[in-house]
Amino acid sequence: MDIKxxxxxxxxxLMSSELPTDPTVEVGETPAVxxxxxxxxxxxxxxxxxxxxxxxxxxxxxxxEDGTEAPAPDGEHEILGVAKIxxxxxxxxxxxxxxxEPKVEVEVEMADVMPVVDITAxxxxxxxxxxxxxxxxxxxxxxxxxxxxxxxxxxxEISTLPTAEVSKPASFTYxxxxxxxxxNIDKFFQALK
Length: 193
Hints:
With about 190 residues, the chain is of the alpha+beta class. The chain contains 3 helices and 7 strands.
């Protein structure tokens, strides 16, 4: 139970002009009070809670950074985007509308402004040149596409051909030991003589 919040409820109840007229409420029994707190931020960065609509006599509670609540300090406070309020004893004493910044209108003669240069003709020339270059590039692209298709056809045709002829088994050759080889060579030379 937050004692400060309860004290604020009691204070707002006592300060309000709405006294219970219900005969069923017994003495000492506190009628239920509905609260509809809305949080706002002031121009100085303080967060405040106001119960219900912003009106004279409504309590204003300041919320510290650590979350503790206390009645708003007396003085003038600007609620961002809403209004300026004057707080006295934790209650709204006066409401003032926000001041709008005066609009300054500056008249500039057209002669003082930079002269407008008609560049449409130059832009149209550039567009025509770019269209010509685009046509050239498209023709080159079409030529490259045809060349790629031709190369693909050749590669596909080559891929269907056998890669090598069927090889025939080579005759078996026996290597003689060196001593036998030199003897055979000697016999060959003798036969030639």
